[in-house]
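Supplementary Methods. Inverse-folding protocol.

Structures were first reduced to a discrete structure-token string of length 375. This string, shown here, constituted the complete conditioning input.
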């Protein structure tokens, strides 16, 4: 069965879909080398276009597929999801559900009414706080993009403030059938400086069992209230032994790739079954140890080396040979499996540095020649 997968980056879920027996065709921004090996891929970058949800729709609209799955970035655009689903089966939350659960005022008010902890927030037009540490972030963002410590300036349209909460950043992955939810696992989030960009995860999170139970209860409450289906995620900070909710992600999340690897079971199959109304009786058992992934970012202008063999070394989201890599741009994703969380983190750091060393510095930009008449 042919399934269209569309969003900012699609490689991880496309890999899971292929392992589950589906034929993925992907539309994303990056068009990584390994994405194109998994199945047909159309990318905005190869077309020389910047990322936007509307541009993804334009490239994806006429591609033949039986079903469609949206990933990161498109959950903030219910109208785009509706257009993608025209003439196809939607494997995911409906546009109506997305509009509600991605509204921070709706979802945070609901969670508070149920007694769950959420990070305090302020919207544009509300009285700005006079004390405390706050983050400025998009009302409907993702991946830590655009999140910065607030410097006291007024908010722009589409921005909000959210209280900065001390503690480890984490994610809960769960699968839901519209009425019931099953937690699949929780991970510690890695963040990249500067700012709060997503930089990977380590599975499992070392946290109290009571906190995992509460996070699972949050997933069940959200499912009952909003009718969530398929794979979903919750981002939170573990503070004072409790999960403090930051955001609900009503779609496949990048951390779920580690569940694929730890359990040896493609989560895409769980996603499809849950959307169609069937939950597994229990989450797939994970093999022992700690499983990590790290997004490797360029610290300077680089050029990708010969990368055709990187996938054989376990590297994913592989750039094309000779690709120009700007500072702050992701180069690739590396993975590690170790007996302790500290060892897993060390392996991720080491493999990330090896990738950066393999890339070569970009040649200096030519200096502009000033015409004599301007001297």
């Amino acid at each position: 069965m042919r399934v269209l997968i569309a969003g900012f980056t699609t490689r991880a879920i496309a890999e899971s879909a292929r392992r589950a027996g589906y034929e993925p065709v992907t539309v994303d921004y990056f068009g990584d080398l390994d994405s194109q090996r998994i199945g047909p891929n159309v990318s905005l970058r190869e077309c020389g276009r910047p990322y936007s949800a509307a541009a993804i729709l334009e490239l994806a609209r006429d591609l033949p597929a039986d079903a469609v799955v949206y990933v990161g970035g498109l959950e903030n655009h219910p109208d785009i999801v509706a257009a993608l689903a025209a003439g196809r089966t939607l494997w995911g939350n409906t546009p109506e559900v997305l509009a509600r659960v991605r509204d921070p005022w709706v979802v945070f008010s609901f969670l508070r009414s149920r007694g769950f902890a959420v990070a305090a927030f302020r919207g544009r037009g509300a009285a700005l706080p006079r004390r405390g540490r706050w983050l400025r972030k998009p009302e409907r963002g993702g991946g830590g993009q655009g999140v910065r410590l607030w410097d006291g300036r007024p908010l722009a349209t589409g921005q909000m403030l959210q209280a900065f909460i001390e503690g480890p950043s984490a994610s809960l992955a769960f699968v839901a059938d519209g009425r019931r939810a099953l937690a699949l696992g929780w991970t510690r989030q890695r963040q990249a400086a500067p700012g709060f960009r997503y930089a990977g995860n380590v599975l499992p999170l070392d946290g109290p069992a009571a906190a995992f139970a509460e996070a699972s209860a949050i997933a069940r409450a959200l499912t009952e209230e909003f009718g969530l289906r398929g794979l979903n995620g919750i981002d939170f900070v573990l503070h004072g032994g409790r999960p403090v909710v930051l955001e609900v992600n009503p779609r496949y999340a990048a951390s779920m790739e580690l569940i694929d690897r730890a359990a040896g079971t493609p989560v895409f199959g769980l996603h499809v079954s849950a959307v169609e109304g069937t939950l597994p009786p229990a989450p797939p058992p994970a093999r022992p140890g700690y499983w990590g992934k790290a997004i490797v970012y360029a610290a300077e202008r680089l050029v990708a080396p010969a990368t055709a063999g990187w996938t054989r070394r376990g590297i994913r989201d592989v750039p094309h040979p000779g690709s120009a890599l700007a500072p702050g741009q992701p180069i690739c994703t590396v993975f590690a499996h170790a007996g302790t969380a500290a060892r897993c983190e060390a392996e991720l750091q080491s493999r990330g540095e090896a990738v950066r060393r393999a890339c070569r510095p970009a040649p200096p930009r030519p200096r502009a020649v000033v015409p004599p008449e301007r001297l």
